[in-house]
From TrEMBL, chain A:
Domain KIB1-4 beta-propeller: 89-243
Residue ranges constituting the F-box domain according to the UniProt record: 9-45
Protein's recorded name: F-box domain-containing protein
Upper classification of the organism: Eukaryota, Viridiplantae, Streptophyta, Embryophyta, Tracheophyta
Organism: Digitaria exilis
From TrEMBL, chain B:
Name of this protein: SKP1-like protein
SUPFAM superfamilies: POZ domain, Skp1 dimerisation domain-like
Homology family: Belongs to the SKP1 family.
Cross-referenced PANTHER family: SKP1
A Pfam match: Skp1_POZ
Region (Disordered): 1-21
Length: 284, 186
C-alpha cells in the first residue's frame, strides 16, 4: 500500500493538537498556532484546559516580548499606555502595592507597614465602586522602605501577590551594587502575622509589577519554577525614598533557591519614561 | 526518511520463530511482523498492556490494522530502546503538575530518536502512539512538534508542516486584524 505523497498536518486529531498546544508556553506561539488553518483554529478554541501561557513584557514604546521567546514585536496599540492596570488607582497611593486575594482587595500600607483589607461596595444606582472601609489585618512588620548601609541607601520594594491560594508579600531589596534580594512572606490571617517562606512553589513563577503582580504556573523542566521575575527600579511612584537619577530600567529573574537566572526574559534595557514597563497577562 | 526495507517479512518470520516468551509479535496494516519486548510494550502502551493481560496476543503476529509498517517499526524500535535505557532521576521525579497533567521532558536519546524522523514518519508515529495509548511516546513526539513551531509565523508553520492555507480571504483578514501583533510580516 503506497503512502500518500503528503500527509496533511491540518488533519491531526484534535486531542493531539491540544497536546502540542500544551507545550507552547509563549502566548504568541499559541495565537499563531490558531491562525495556521481552520482545523487548528478550532482545536485552539475548544476551551480544553491548557496551562496558562507566560505573560508578555510590554515596554512603553509599544515593544512587546512574548515570554519566553526572545523575538520582540510591535504592538502599537500598547504604546503610550498610561498605567499598567489601566484604571485610576490614585486613591491607593497610600498603599505601596495592592492585590486581590480570594476576591478581596488588600493593600500594603508603606508608612506603617500594615496589611489592610479594603472593603469595596458598589453603588446600587450608579454601579460605581467605592471604599466602604479599610481594616488593618496584619500589623506593622519590621519591613522598612529604605535603610542606610555603609552610607548607601538600600531600597526596599514591597509587593503583594496571590499564589496557589495564599497571599504572599515579597520584600525586594536592591543593594548599592545592583544586587537584588527577595524575602517572601505568607499572610497568616488567623494569627494576624506574616510567616517567612523559603519557597514560592516549584511550579510557580511570580511576575512582579506593583499593582498587577501575578503568579504563573510553569512546567518545572521547560521553565524552572520557584522564581521571581521583576523590574529593576520599579519606582514609578517617584516617592521620596527613591534615587531618581537612574535613567534606564530592565527586567530580571532570580531563582529563590539558588539565585540562578533562567533565560526566559529578553536581555533588554530601556529608557525610563513617564510610564513603566509591565507584564501583560493573556486571558485564560 | 527511507526505512530500511531489508527487514523483510522473511527475516521477521525467522525472528518470530526464535522468539521466546519475553517478546510479543506485532503485525502492521501491510502485513509486516515486528518483535517487541513484552515488558516494555506493557509498560509503555496501555493498549498493548491490555491485550497482553487479556490474552489477545497472537503468537503469529497481533494485528494492528491501523498502523503501517514504518510507524510500527518506529514504535517497536522505541519500545526496545526504552527497555534498554535506564530512566533518569529526572524522569522518575517528574510529578510536578503542569496545570492538569505531568509534563515530561524527553531524554537525550528520545530527542535523537524523533529528530531523525521525516515529517511524515513523525505524523504517523504520533498517531500510532495515540492509538496504542503510549503516553510517554506522545509526550516525546508532541514535544518535537511543538519545538518545530516555536517562534514561527503562521506562514512559516504552514511551510514546515505542508499545510495549505485554506482560510477564505475574509477569514484571513479577520484573523489578521484580530492578531496583527503576532505576525512577523506585520
Amino acid at each position: 500500500m503506497p503512502d500518500p505523497p503528503q500527509l496533511s498536518w491540518s488533519d491531526i486529531p484534535l486531542d493531539l493538537a491540544v497536546l502540542v498546544l500544551r507545550r507552547l508556553p509563549a502566548h504568541v506561539d499559541r495565537v499563531r498556532f490558531a491562525a495556521v488553518c481552520p482545523q487548528w483554529r478550532s482545536a485552539a478554541r475548544q476551551g480544553l484546559p491548557l496551562p496558562r501561557p507566560l505573560p508578555l513584557l510590554a515596554l512603553q514604546d509599544g515593544t512587546v516580548y512574548s515570554l519566553p521567546s526572545a523575538e520582540p514585536f510591535r504592538l502599537p496599540a500598547c504604546a503610550g499606555y498610561r498605567d499598567a492596570c489601566g484604571g485610576n488607582w490614585l486613591f491607593f497611593s497610600v498603599f505601596s502595592d495592592i492585590a486581590f486575594h480570594q476576591g478581596k482587595l488588600y493593600g500594603f500600607d508603606y508608612i506603617r507597614s500594615d496589611l489592610c483589607a479594603i472593603d469595596i461596595c458598589v453603588d446600587n444606582n450608579t454601579d460605581d465602586p467605592s471604599i466602604s472601609g479599610i481594616r488593618r489585618v496584619i500589623e506593622g512588620t519590621s519591613i522598612i522602605a529604605a535603610t542606610l548601609v555603609d552610607d548607601f541607601v538600600v531600597i526596599n520594594t514591597v509587593y503583594l501577590v496571590e499564589s496557589s491560594g495564599a497571599l504572599l508579600m515579597e520584600d525586594g531589596t536592591v543593594y548599592p551594587n545592583g544586587r537584588n534580594e527577595f524575602e517572601v512572606f505568607q499572610a497568616d490571617f488567623e494569627r494576624s502575622k506574616w510567616t517567612e517562606s523559603a519557597t514560592i512553589g516549584l511550579d510557580q513563577v511570580l511576575f512582579l509589577r506593583r499593582r498587577c503582580s501575578r503568579s504563573v504556573p510553569v512546567s518545572q523542566k521547560e521553565i524552572p519554577g520557584n522564581c521571581i521575575a521583576f523590574f529593576e527600579n520599579d519606582d514609578d511612584d517617584d516617592t521620596v525614598w527613591y534615587n531618581t537619577e537612574k535613567s534606564s530600567s530592565s527586567c530580571s529573574i532570580c531563582n529563590m533557591k539558588d539565585g540562578k537566572m533562567p533565560s526566559i526574559l529578553p536581555t533588554v534595557s530601556w529608557k525610563r519614561g513617564t510610564v513603566p514597563a509591565t507584564w501583560l497577562f493573556p486571558q485564560d | 526518511m527511507e526505512v530500511d526495507k531489508g527487514k523483510g517479512e522473511a527475516e521477521e518470520t525467522r525472528k518470530v520463530a526464535e522468539a521466546d516468551r519475553d517478546t510479543v509479535t506485532l503485525k502492521s496494516s501491510d502485513g509486516k511482523l515486528f518483535e517487541v519486548s513484552k515488558e516494555a510494550a506493557a509498560r509503555l502502551s496501555t493498549v498493548l498492556a491490555g491485550m497482553i493481560a487479556g490474552g489477545s496476543i497472537d503468537d503469529n503476529g497481533t494485528d494492528l490494522k491501523q498502523i503501517g509498517s514504518e510507524a510500527l517499526e518506529n514504535v517497536v524500535d522505541y519500545c526496545n530502546k526504552h527497555a534498554n535505557s535506564i530512566p533518569s532521576a529526572a524522569l522518575i521525579s517528574s510529578s510536578i503538575s503542569f496545570n492538569t497533567a505531568p509534563f515530561k521532558e524527553p531524554e537525550e536519546w528520545e530527542r535523537k530518536f524523533v529528530d531523525r524522523l521525516s515529517h511524515d514518519a513523525l505524523f504517523d508515529l504520533v498517531e500510532a502512539a495515540n492509538f496504542l495509548g503510549m503516553e510517554r511516546l506522545l509526550d516525546v513526539t508532541c514535544h518535537k512538534i511543538s519545538e518545530m513551531m516555536k517562534g514561527k509565523s503562521p506562514d512559516q508553520i504552514r511551510e514546515v508542516f505542508n499545510i495549505k492555507n485554506d482560510y477564505t480571504k475574509e477569514e484571513l483578514e479577520e484573523i489578521r486584524q484580530e492578531l496583527a501583533w503576532a505576525f512577523y510580516d506585520d
